[in-house]
Design brief:
The chain is an alpha/beta fold and 339 residues long. The protein is built from eleven helices and 16 strands. β12, α7 and β13 form a beta-alpha-beta unit. α3 crosses α10. The longest helix is centred in the last third of the chain and has 16 residues.
Length: 339
Amino acid sequence: MRAIQIKEYLPDPSHMKVVSLPTPAPSASTYLIAIHATATNFFDLLQIRGKYQHQPPMPFISGAEFAGVILAEPTTPPPTGSHKFHVGDRVFGSFQGGYSTHILAPEASLRPMPSNWDFASAAGLMVTAPTAYAALVTRANTRPNETVLVHAAAGGVGLSAVQVAKALGATVIATAGSKRKLEVAKAYGADHCIDYNDPKWYEQVKALTPKQKGVDVVFDPVGMIDNSLRCIAWNGRLVIIGFTAGKIEKIAMNRILLKNVSLIGLHWGMYAREEPEMVDEVWKALFNLMAAGKFKGTVFTDKEFIGLETIGEALQMLGNRKTWGKVVVKVPQDKVSKL
């Protein structure tokens, strides 16, 4: 197989190299999968520099999101007598080692590809889609006719949130930092789009709400809670997804009290350990949205990336914030892997 193997920490993704390695065999608990598309993430940039909170031991294969085809099942049968996936099944998942032509992954890290979806669209689902759904439904309890403010709405998780909010019957106000990104957010269903480079963007947001009362829900993967409190409605909910701006805010708690609002955190990655039953519930709801045509892939299409050799460039563009949606790299397979 071919893969991007990290043997020492790198200053930037331009130093990533594709190497040839033995194709692994399935173990008692892992499937062998031929990867046809792999998605990039900001944490990949941190991981190759040794600055991520979850660092695999050296050497490791970078990347963590993918879509592909099952080549071989685990060698040990499960208690039920049959594995969930079989040779030839198309799957997507999240597991260390996505920047490769092949990967070994356990069943819990995989999901069946939605019918009529391509590998590129499915490769970027595993992190963004459930994060958006769990934030808006499980945590914020978003209801029809409410107004939802989605920050960084043209990112992978942002576009997912726009679609989920619209499917719930909400009005969506999207923020982004460029004309192109605002166009993308609009194309994915946002009702109103605002450039957050305007220092008074929150005034524009509030003016768009019924009776200028403010938004009911804020979806924030950036770190914009402080100013979002200026345009939140009474009884509003602000869901904290992340801090892509690089700064963790400090909020005056009297503002939370005076506006009678709730600050809500979401750590989707911990649900598998703390509330595993909720993981299946969220995915069931998402698959229903996909089947109904209310949720589509968020693949960045302004530039196409084909081959593992292009991952460095893809990550560079991602890190420089020159992209929108999910930046996905197509991974060509040889004839043996094309099932």
